[in-house]
Every structure is written in structure tokens, then in C-alpha cells.
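REVIEWER CHECKLIST
Item 1: Sequence provided? yes
Item 2: Single chain? yes
Item 3: Sequence as submitted:
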Amino acid sequence: MSDEQAWTRRNVLRTGGTIASAGLMAGCLGESGSSDDDTAYTVSMPPVGEVEFDGVPKNWAASNGSWADMGIALGQKPPEALYLASRYHTQYYDEIPGVSVDKSDIKSFWGDGTLGPEEVLSMSETVDLFVMDPNFVLNRGNGWKQEDIDQVEATGTPFFGNSIFSSGYKWHDYDYLTLYEAFEKLSQVFQETERYEAFASLHDEFQSNVADIVPPEAERPSVAIMWAAESDMGSFSPYLIGDGTSFKQWRELGVKDAFANTDVRDFHSTRSSVGYETLLEIDPDIILFRGQEAKTVEEFQNAIVSQLENDDVASELTAVQNGEVYRGGPLYQGPITNLVVTQRAAEQVYGIDEQLYDPQEVSDIINGDF
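Item 4: Structure as written out by the authors:
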């Protein structure tokens, strides 16, 4: 798809009920958005290029929690569907007063383990926008061909997205966007650029606060980030800290990647694994397990950490002995989620007790009170 290619969608009218429905219990359009008329506009994003809109999308679906979180930040109702709704961790909103999302009605495209054209095509008559990277669908879906992408778009519901959470896909040979670059693009789609600008300003201050608590490089801990499964402890998928939004908090906290100067290769590109013996050789200061965000701290301790403590090899790890094993954050994060998980990560790795952002200010932006 060339950047010059333009996509159009059927006319969609913005309604006052956009936010109040579908389980979003916070946010109002207020005065922050653009006018509600039907003036056509275009928004550009790689790889889809210029996408033309006849009006602001009302119902939408998205690939993952990164984009869902951006939509909530922009005062929109939750998406109708995600690839895997279970990986949209709405419990993070508990940290933001007056914001709550009920995801029980969000469908999962990938619920049966596959993502075929039929699932997406069947939704094209009820949603106005697929916030998805079509190249991800082509390369990671089941049996997709370009003509399937074309058939979906022919219904008037376009694709608009970029796979920003990881830079490990070989087929992703176009520009990646940072979290806030992608967030700005979506704000243009929903005509909520003032909300975006308010978030961007808050984020600038937040990043300054984060930089202030990061110690000199020699004093920063080494961390090993892995995917863990409760039923298969002892074999973990390693994640090397790199580009992509899923590592944003760890990059900005400046932690040392325990795997960076070893023979361990990133799971995302090689599907590699590491065991207790390899971990003991590396012996990171802190161990972070992904795939555990649905668990509370107590549940994580009982299900995961207890297995490490009771294993003859794992119990020798410095991180286990020092109680430095934590949930490692989500794969997908948007602007709200990033604030919450970075705050938590800073508390984990640096032991801070100060608040790095103002949750009430976040709530005010979502609710249009800014």
C-alpha cells in the first residue's frame, strides 16, 4: 500500500452517546473536540497512507490494548472487539479516579486461536473503523490474502493502524511510530486533538519526573524480562529491551537488560527460551514476568514466586533470595496505561514512594475537564 493511496469509509455521524455506552463509566465530550459536523478529512499513517473520513467514527474495533487505551484517553467508548480482549488490562484504570471500563462486552477476534477474514468481514457492517495494521493481519492471521483486505475495505470500513508494540517483525519494513506519535494520529481520526495535546503536556512533565528519579548508570539494576506460564515454570520466553511501545517504561527508567550481552536471543524474533540454569549463570538483580497482569500481587506470589522459592536451582537466584521478582508489565500500553505501569515499575526497581504523575489530572483530561 502506497502512502498516496486514499481510503474512504461510509458516512458516520457523531452522536452524544458515543462515550456513555458500551461500559465506559467516565469521560464526556465536553468542549474539547472538534465540531460535530460531517466535514470530510484525511489522516495519514504508515502503512495505510491517507485515509479519508466523512465523519468521526462512532463504533470501532482495534488490534490490542494499546489502541483501546488511546481511545479511552480520547474520551471514546471502548472498542467493539480486540484481537484478545483478555490482554486489555482495564484494572489499571483503578488508579485513575472516575475512570472505569467494563470490557465484558468486548469481543475477541482471536478467541478461537485463529484470525480469519470472516471474523473481520462480519464486523465491517457494525463498526466504522478497524484500528489495525493490515500487514499484521496478512502476516499473523489465518489464510489472509490482499484481496481479503480489499474486500473488507470495500465495505467502507478502513484499516488504520501500525504494529507499534514491538519492532521484531521482519515484514514491518515501514516507519514505526512512538506511542505518542500513534496517539496523535488516532486523536486526528477522532477529532480530539486538544485532548491529545493535554495528554502530551502531562506526559512531558511525567518524563521529566521519571528522569529525576533514575540513578547514575552504575547504580541501576539488571533486569530479566520473560514470559511465564504458571503450568510451565522453568521454561521462559525472554524479551530483550528494545524499540516498541511495550518496553517504553523500561527504556525510560534506564534499567540494564540482563540478556543484552549474553547469547540469549529475543523470543519475539527467534521463539527462544531460557531455563533456571541459564538464569543462574546470568543472575539478574531483578526478574520480571510478563503474562501475569491479571493476577494480584498476592496471586502472583502464590502462583509464580512460590515455585521459584521451592525450586533447588531457582531458589539460588539473587532476585529470588532478595524478593525482587515482579509482574513485568503488559505487552500493550497506551497513554493511560503507560503512566500507571511506569509508576509501578519505578517503585519496583528504584523503590520510590513519590507519585510521578497526577491521577486526577489524567481523569480530568479523559472527562474533558481541562
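Item 5: Key structural point noted by reviewer: Residues 343 and 356 are 6 Å apart (CA to CA).
Item 6: Recommendation: ____
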